[in-house]
């Protein structure tokens, strides 16, 4: 495992961090045995940075329980986050933080991040609620070691936020398709220049740069290097940059962990050749033609009060361009199952707008769902299903 220095704390962080948002699940419940295997397997391979959050279902509890059982708390850094979206006043800071310590079975957090800070206006609101004094007090007591923020917003807001508080870490969305999106490369370089460790999330763009890569793009990678998977290409692009400190990977199978850890053994800044950079450019050209909606499948917009399966609809829509219309349609039929009244179809959206407030990618969900409906529920399909429903004597489509 390669390590990079956190210049603020002086600590060494593994370049591969474990993103704990999506532990393996079994019948909708976190598979704690498999999660334990992954967490301990990661530690064995040198991973020492674990990223979780209050709002990741079951994540803090599982991570805390595994580390406590293995007596491994002292071997790793835990990053967790204050759920800004759930805070109604300064009184909530302690409420959430105390709960997080309890779930994590610890009395301190190594990196405490403001979760999903988007702009200065939001930070000013939290300032007016006393967040700076609160952080200072927690740090004085040793309950928070380093304070940081995770970011989903426009680049200019990121640059302003960097100057708005003596941050000790930032977490940004970054990958070869998002080089100029959100904080982007400009934000990355500015943060690094200021001595902040930069933790990268969405290195695979919710899987779109791995298994979800359009076949033509995946073939370009394969042609250039038979042995390296698309996920490996994506990780190496990040580790090639000295400004990147830790890359979070939401590994939920041992095979993924092994592959990523093996790459992290030898990945160093400046390792990519000009020929490899050219391959990324070619892949990106194909990729950009295929992906219409920038949804990462994070699920922050869910649940929808009308049961629209928002990420499922978008994934199927993207597939209908990246793989083909029939594949997209099949995916839509299985993920949102437009055959009964309450199953997650785009057509069920009543445009309340609740989901859009939570989307870190700032997707115009209502507008895009209309596009999904136009493409994947065309009139002839609706007519056909309506006829089948009438024949079967039950209402299947409006
Ligand atoms: S706008 Fe549509 S998809 Fe979003 S929460 Fe409301 S009903 Fe659901
Ligand atoms: S629409 Fe936005 S919030 Fe919902 S899954 Fe996609 S990226 Fe996440």
CATH superfamily of the largest domain: NADP-dependent oxidoreductase domain
Helix content: 40-55%
The separation of the N and C termini measures 56 Å
**Cα-based radius of gyration, to the nearest Å:** 22 Å
Q: From the coordinates shown, what is the CATH architecture of the largest domain?
A: Alpha-Beta Barrel
**Can you summarize the main beta sheet?**
8 strands, parallel, barrel
The ligands bound in this entry are:
iron/sulfur cluster
Low-confidence stretches: none
User: What's the SSE pattern?
Assistant: EEEEEHEHEHEHHEHEHEHHEHHHHHH
CATH class of the largest domain: Alpha Beta
How many helices does DSSP assign?
15
Structural class: alpha/beta
E-strand count: 12
Choose one word for the global shape: globular
Q: Give the overall average pLDDT.
A: 91
What proportion of the residues form beta strands (DSSP E)? 5-15%
Order of strands across the widest beta sheet? 3-6-7-8-9-10-11-12
Any idea of the CATH topology of the largest domain? TIM Barrel
| Integer count of domains | 2
């Amino acid at each position: 495992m390669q390590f990079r220095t956190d210049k603020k704390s002086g600590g060494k962080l593994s370049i591969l961090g474990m993103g704990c948002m999506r532990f393996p699940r079994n019948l909708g419940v976190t598979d704690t045995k498999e999660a334990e295997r992954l967490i301990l397997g990661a530690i064995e391979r040198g991973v020492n940075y674990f990223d979780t959050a209050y709002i990741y279902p079951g994540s803090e509890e599982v991570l805390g329980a595994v580390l406590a059982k293995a007596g491994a708390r002292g071997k790793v850094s835990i990053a967790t986050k204050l759920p800004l979206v759930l805070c109604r006043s300064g009184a909530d800071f302690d409420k959430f933080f105390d709960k997080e310590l309890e779930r994590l079975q610890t009395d301190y957090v190594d990196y405490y991040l403001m979760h999903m800070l988007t702009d200065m206006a939001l930070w000013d609101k939290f300032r007016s609620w006393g967040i700076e004094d609160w952080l200072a007090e927690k740090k004085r007591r040793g309950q928070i070691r380093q304070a940081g923020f995770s970011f989903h917003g426009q680049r200019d807001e990121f640059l302003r936020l960097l100057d708005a508080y003596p941050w000790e870490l930032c977490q940004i969305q970054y990958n070869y398709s998002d080089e100029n999106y959100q904080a982007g490369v400009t934000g990355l370089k500015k943060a690094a220049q200021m001595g902040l460790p930069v933790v990268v999330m969405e290195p695979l763009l919710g899987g779109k740069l791995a298994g979800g890569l359009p076949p033509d793009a995946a073939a370009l990678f394969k042609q250039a290097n038979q042995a390296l998977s698309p996920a490996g290409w994506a990780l190496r692009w990040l580790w090639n940059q000295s400004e990147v400190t830790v890359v979070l990977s939401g590994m939920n199978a041992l095979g993924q962990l092994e592959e990523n850890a093996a790459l992290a053994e030898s990945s160093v800044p400046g390792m990519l050749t000009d020929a490899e950079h050219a391959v990324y450019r070619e892949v990106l050209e194909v990729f950009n033609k295929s992906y219409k909606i920038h949804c990462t499948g994070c699920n922050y917009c869910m649940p929808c009060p009308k049961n629209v399966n928002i990420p499922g609809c978008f994934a199927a829509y993207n597939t209908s361009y990246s793989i083909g219309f029939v594949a997209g349609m099949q995916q839509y039929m299985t993920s949102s199952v437009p055959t009964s009244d309450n199953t997650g179809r785009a057509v069920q959206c009543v445009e309340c707008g609740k989901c859009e407030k939570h989307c870190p990618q700032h997707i115009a969900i209502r507008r895009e769902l209309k596009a999904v409906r136009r493409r994947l529920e065309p009139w002839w399909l609706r007519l056909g299903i309506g006829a089948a429903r009438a024949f079967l004597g039950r209402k299947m489509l409006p």
